[in-house]
Amino acid sequence: MAEARPLSFDVVVIGGGVNGTGVARDCAMRGLKVALVEKSDLASGASGANSGMIHGGARYLLHDLSVTKMSCLDSGYIQRIAPHLCFRIPFIVPMLESTPRAKMMLELMEVYFEAYDVYQRHKNARSSTRLTKEEVLQLEPGINEAIIGGVTFDEWGIDPFRLCVSNALSARDHGATILTYHEAEALLRDGEAVVGVRARDLVTGEVLTLQAPVVANLAGPWAPRVAALAGAEVKLRPGKGIHLVYDRRITNYAIVAAAIDDRQIFLEPHENSTILGTTDDDYYGDPDELWATEDEIEYLLQAIETVFPSIRQHRVVRTFVGVRPTIFEYGPVEDKLTRDHRIVDHAGSGAPGLVTMTGGKLAAYRLMSEEMTDAICGRLGNHARCTTHEVPFPGGDGDASLPELAQQLKLSPYALRRLAYRHGSGAAAVLEQAGETAGTQVCRCEPVLEAELRWSIRNEGARTLDDLRRRTRLAMGPCQGFRCIAKAAEILRQELELSEPQLLAQVLDLLQQRHRGKAPALAGASLAQEELHQARYFLLGDLARQGCSGSATDTAAKNTWEREQ
Ligand SMILES: Cc1cc2nc3c(=O)[nH]c(=O)nc-3n(C[C@H](O)[C@H](O)[C@H](O)COP(=O)(O)OP(=O)(O)OC[C@H]3O[C@@H](n4cnc5c(N)ncnc54)[C@H](O)[C@@H]3O)c2cc1C
Is the predicted pLDDT of residue 198 greater than 60, yes or no? Predict the structure, then answer.
């Protein structure tokens, strides 16, 4: 495939996670000409595999106070720019009778959370409360009765996929070029200086030459590999974390438990599911090859069972796994590693023009991005001030209630609420664009509307079924795609004019991914049911015989982010 003519920018951002999209937005809003390249889809790395909290990190109070403060501050700003995407998650920390010196520990815990309250006001959180045993059990009857009381504290949740997509949409509205499924495969050099990126379109094979005086390495756990393209070193201590996802919300409150090694884990109602997480283990493998192991799953179940005894009776619908791009330190156990971030200008190590940011938290991404953009602007002589904490995301700027049209569609209030959650004040436009099909539901579990799928393909750069999953929560509910995948595939085919083999490859790809997430957590009847579902698709859908061995991205259609511009 021939190289296209070079394109010139002020900055090329590598990575479409929360930090890459956050920096792209900030740079574009300060008037810089920005290109962002992401080798997969937005939020396909750590940013789509976390616990979905823009929290303060109560546990960092003891050894990383600045991280707690920064995360609380930024959580408050994120709530301001994305009010539709944020939701409260109240937590209960129950104190088991069997805890050594339980009464004293409960007193200490109350004091601890009072100290946390000092920072909580930055993120509009309610103060902690000491609860009696009866009060805890009244709020959350599933909690183990062998407790002496508990303490509450308040956190905020967010849909991390929509957070990244919103950043990218806003960046694009301010002139940025967003290139998903484009891998940075080499850095351009002029002598020592890094002067751009050679990026390959992983769908068409086309090679793009993106020239820029600054290249921002925001590749998360892949940052060392990107830096190595310029012969520079970035050292991480990557930490693998898994989560189990339960069918619907099984508790009203998030519940904290101590694991066998005294680490804190939690069961958390999140959107319309419940998440059990998370582990934190040194990871030496490939960040592209991740799956949960039985040991990791058992570690979480054993821990939460101590405070929520019925957990094994609830249905796990899948697992998901991510790797934290934690800063390197030799010595501390994984849990005690700093969650602070670091910006490295590689000018000092023979690669001027390349700047890397690693570490940090989803909750502090906007402040981190501001700091990184300050560094980029400093190199370019741009003195514009940051406004990303003032200007709302698309959809975050007004009334998210739906117009009369929505009431006429005979959709459930729940479906409308979910649409308004994802699109804020933009929900009306999603329905209006769909015309006659506006009221059609593609999946009842979530629920997901045909209108939203078409909107995401036309306006949000979705190119594959998995992209639709990230943007709309298609196949994220209890059916995990078995009910909705064929209908969604047909919509994708119509919108992107896919051929039959392309379409089938898309279906197979999503089914395989869902299976990979589910299989480690299945046993007995649920495993048998899963095998039957798989067989139904493979035999009735004839997927195996159709020769669908390529991945969805091999056969996906042209980049719709580009089509938009
Ligand atoms: C298990 C777990 C739980 C967590 N829970 C929380 C939480 O609840 N709250 C919180 O605040 N933080 C949490 N975090 C931390 C948070 O998720 C991360 O700090 C954050 O998502 C990192 O974002 P990033 O953009 O730096 O990296 P990523 O999201 O990994 O993005 C990097 C991107 O770069 C792309 N890329 C890599 N190489 C190339 C290349 N050569 N060319 C183009 N693109 C490339 C990748 O595909 C990827 O999409 C958690 C993390 C994990 C793993």
Answer: yes
